[in-house]
Amino acid sequence: MDLSQREAAAQTRLEPVWFDYLQGGAGEERTVRDNRDAWGRWSLRPHYLRDVRGTSAATTLLGTPSPAPMVVAPTAMHRLFHPDGELATAAGAAAAGMIYTVSMAAMTSLEDIAATAPGAPRWMQVYMFADRGITKACCERAAAAGYAALVLTIDSPVTARNLRNERNGFNVPAGLTLPNLAPPDAHDLDIWGIVGAYDPAVTPDDIAIVSAWGGGLPVVVKGLVRGDDARRAVDAGAAAVAVSNHGGRQLDTCIATARALPEVVDAVAGDAEVYVDGGVRAGIDVVKALALGARAVLVGRPVIWGLATDGAAGVESVLRELTDDTARALALCGVTSPHDVTRDLLT
What is the DSSP letter of 58? Predict the structure, then answer.
């Protein structure tokens, strides 16, 4: 089943309100569309007359081996899409060998996710909440549970409007909670009152604070689309930055990530790894991201399509398909490794 078929199958299996929540974005969803279209505006200039036997998509990300330049992006509330939720996502990502970035807004505790695939690589996404004790506790728990990095999402100083959710009266079914927003033994805590109570005063100084809360774990700063902001993050200690507009879910008409990526790469100048998300749907998109200077892409919605259709097996299938497609695209471009991709492959 290819990704377009996965998307269509997910739509038939999910309640319309959940599918709209997954697919939708802020405002008129122009950025959602532009993210996808922007990759197609770059054309490839492949090399030929080259030996591409033994082509591999394998790489390392913050020192962790990965079968492809790809990470499972943090996405919230997986039990809306499959009864096993994040446990199935973790199992599928582990089977494919991919790093899974667990959302702070997961419907499964980060400890239970770690226990599902104990040897698999995992990162933990965090938001800085107005009650900073919530974020501090999550960082401490992630470090104790063996997570290898913290992904600080910084593009949500306030909560955006989502017109689809407003029209649908989106709400989460009773009995489903967000256990990473509170200690496991917390009682009578208004979880849904916490959601969206982000700290509007996050600065580069908070990167070191988050790392310290996590016992020195490396921090990936996610949500940057400008070179100057990326440079500030790296100078403040970020181990990596992720070019992201939150999949079009925060600021509508925000620049597409494929367009923002080159400026960020140039500003970082090799001092940190650079990742990108938004609209990646094929191996050629991954190769284009590499050519623009990214170390890897983050994949969000396609993973959830796999989860919705076939649980853990669907997640694994989506990730393996993208891995194979990336290796095929590399070979067709005349290169045998992600590390051999250069910007002159694009026009």
Answer: -
Burial 97-126 (b: 16+ CB within 10 A, else e): bbbbbbbbbbbbbbbbbbebbeebbbbbbb
Cβ(289)–Cβ(57) below 8 Å = no
Model's pTM, two decimal places?
0.95
Task: List pLDDT tens digits, range 126-175.
Answer: 999 999 999 999 999 999 999 999 999 999 888 888 889 889 988 888 88
- Kindly list the catalytic residues: 246
Residues contacting residue 143 through CB under 8 Å, at least 6 positions apart: 214, 215, 217
Dist. CA 131–CA 332, nearest whole Å: 50
Cα 127 to Cα 139: distance, rounded to the nearest angstrom: 10
Asked if the 3-345 domain carries CATH number 3.20.20.70, the reply is: yes
Per domain, the residue ranges of the chain are 3-345
The full 3-state SS of 127-192, as one line of letters, equals CCECCHHHHHHHHHHHHHCCCCCEEEECCCCCCCCCHHHHHHCCCCCCCCCCHHHCCCCCCCCCHH
